[in-house]
Amino acid sequence: MPDPCYARLAESGELERRCRAAADLLRACTLCPRACGVDRTAGEVGWCGAGASARVYRHMAHHGEEPPISGHRGSGVIFFSFCTMACVYCQNFVFSRLHEGRDRSVPELALMMGSLARLGCHNLNLVSGTQHLPAILDSLLHAYHDGVALPVVWNTSGYESPVALALLDGVVDVYLADLRYSSPSAASKYSDAPDYVEVSRAALVAMQRQVGSLAMDADGIARRGLLVRHLVLPNGLSGTREALRFLAREVGSGTYVSLMSQYYPAFRADSIPELSRGITGEEWEEAKAALEDEGLVNGWIQALPGGPSPMAGTELPPDG
Question: 1-12, pLDDT tens digit by residue?
Fold first, then answer.
């Protein structure tokens, strides 16, 4: 197995420098596009609600991701609490919106990474980690010195700042990024992120520039590159055709896309009429037709009415 990207940065001392730079950002936090500017080291919390410590809900060998991510041994997922988005239909709302989980030290996070490596996972899959980026970078450095050498998958909503992406450049092997909306008004109404379209599109272009198109080894396991997820929402709210057109024209027609049908009215969506149902067969056929029309032939199309549970996998004990 080739060394992960961050091995080079760890050996050169650059990763340690990134750790210090990220930690300094907590004093006037600008990690995410909201750029609250609060001093998290002094106990202040910004829009996302996160403090100075990283909070983790669960870590596990996850078998429900896309085939090149989960492979046959599972993806080593760490679900981080809090989120820089506020999706009313969040399927991970227990920890993203209700903030369940336990605050963890950097050595504890590094031990989690080590436990996932010993389990045989193909990668470290860091879910919604932007608000905890300083602790994550420090943990990767600790884990590397403890012998952990797994590729890093940055599993993100796509709502990433240039500051965070600069810190991640050369650290992340695979970006597993969402492209949620094509309409700023929909992004504002359903995720409280009116600048999501602009920010996420710029972020995807930057990610592509960093890691290139998805590359897999002889066993079909992702080793480097960008994989974009698009969740189809009912009533055309995700702007699927426009989103896929952007990907084909601005990121590249060779982009690997995961077209997802698994929407269901989670969290508060039941009370919002236009989001209170799953997608119809007709809506799903329209989404697949858009994918074909834009010439996006690489990737995966989820079965209707949805794929496996997002929590399918082998869970580890909290201190495992």
Answer: 568 889 999 999
